[in-house]
Amino acid sequence: RVTKEVDSTSKEAKSFLRQQEKWQSAAPASLPTVSGVRRPSGMSTLLGKIGSKKQKMSTLEKSKLDWENFKEEEGIVEELAIHNRGKDGYIERKAFLERVDHRQFEIERDIRLSRMKP
């Protein structure tokens, strides 16, 4: 079982509340009534519980959830944010290497073009 805390005004929270309302409004209507009192029938209730499908979580969602929980438990959220912003961050290093590669290509291109013109 996975628990997740979200802001009550977020889209996810609102959709969850809508689903809960649908489940609650659909459940009483499906139960048979006997002399005005709603009573669940034994076999259909058991089959409904057994046959109900659980929402499956993908591997990516599970990994993301595990990573978020790990960051919170270890208290490294701020440290990761600071580290990824600085010079030592992966994205910054990749951008630097791309700029260097592009600059090197331009230098080589200029040399080739200067040799071609008499």
From TrEMBL:
Bias-annotated ranges (Basic and acidic residues): 1-21
Keywords per UniProt: Chromosome, Developmental protein, Kinetochore
BCNT-C domain segment(s): 37-118
Presence of the UniProt keyword rRNA processing in the record: no
Region (Disordered): 1-53
Keyword Ribosomal protein in record: no
Entry GO terms, CC: kinetochore; Swr1 complex
InterPro entries attached to this UniProt entry: BCNT-C, Swc5/CFDP1/2
Subcellular location: Chromosome, Centromere, Kinetochore
PANTHER family given in the database record: CRANIOFACIAL DEVELOPMENT PROTEIN 1
Role of this protein: May play a role during embryogenesis.
Protein name: Craniofacial development protein 1
Species of provenance: Haliaeetus albicilla (White-tailed sea-eagle)
Encoding gene (name): Cfdp1
